[in-house]
Amino acid sequence: MSHQVLLVIPTFRPTQSVIDLVKQIELTTIVSDDASPVTSDPVLRDVSQLENVTVIRNHHNRGIARGLNQGLEFANANGFSWLLTLDQDSSIELDYPEKILAAAQSHEQLWTDRASIGVIAPATIFDISGPMTYPTTIAAGICVTEEVIQSGALWRVSALTKVGGFDERLGIDAVDAAACLRLRESGFLVALTDCVELQHNLGDSRQVNILGRTVMLTNHSPARRSTMVRNRLRLAPAEFKQSPKHAVRTLRRVAVNSILGGLTGEDRWAKTKGSLSGLRSDKSKE
Asked: Does residue 65 contact residue 32 with C-beta atoms inside 8 Å?
């Protein structure tokens, strides 16, 4: 397995947890740091001294997509077939890589002469506010969805390369959604498995019930809310073309989160202005 799967961990101001995570998983690992301040030097130095770990120190902050693409480039150059991407604050079991790879390989036996896997991810994410699941359908005999978060996902290197990797223009928000969209457009499956579990906190979130529906309310900053709205609107035309139902569902979720963010918690007006600013087009990102 170690020769098939490359672990990629994008970091910013990493803590000891990154070192613990790398030691636990024991895969060839790329740690791509997004221009952390010098206070992070001790952690990055210590993790770079671990076996089979390469640390990339970027000098300008550009978001998670660049770090993921640096991992993809390394995977292509060194013959890895799969890319396991993890956030620095995520937590997984010791046998997670082995189990999710086995799930991917097991599914592939069903896919002869059918759509091939682009990415496979855990069906349930355990957030501090409670479990989060995806809307699902069955395709080629397996459980699939439209998009997954990148943390804990296992990406097929050849498929990801074919679609151009991760969109660095998006920076952080919706980077994984855009990659999944491109994979679906190219005929690849976005698959789910219940054989692994991921512990991951989604933006200091909490779940609320509205009219019988559970909604994830995040506590992102005004600046993040702006890019979340803007990036989702940029993806919307292609999403509507690929899956109108998913596009409507996504925009509804963003709208509800933006509205509730302006009505609850601290800095309500600042968060509202942040969300509203995301409605304006950003020509520099085109």
From this structure: no
| d(C-alpha 247, C-alpha 238), whole Å | 9
Per-residue pLDDT 10s for the chain (286 aa) are 657 999 999 999 999 999 999 999 989 999 999 999 999 999 999 999 999 999 999 999 999 999 999 999 999 999 999 999 999 989 999 999 999 999 998 877 665 555 689 999 999 998 776 788 899 999 878 899 999 999 999 999 999 999 999 999 998 889 999 999 999 999 999 999 999 999 987 655 555 555 556 656 566 666 777 888 889 999 999 999 999 999 999 988 888 777 766 656 566 556 555 555 666 655 444 4
Write down the domain spans for the chain: 5-199, 206-285
Question: Which fold is adopted by the domain 5-199?
Answer: Spore Coat Polysaccharide Biosynthesis Protein SpsA; Chain A (3.90.550)
Q: Going by C-beta distance under 8 Å and a sequence separation of 6 or more, which residues neighbour residue 33?
A: 10, 11, 12, 14, 40, 44, 55, 56, 57, 58, 67
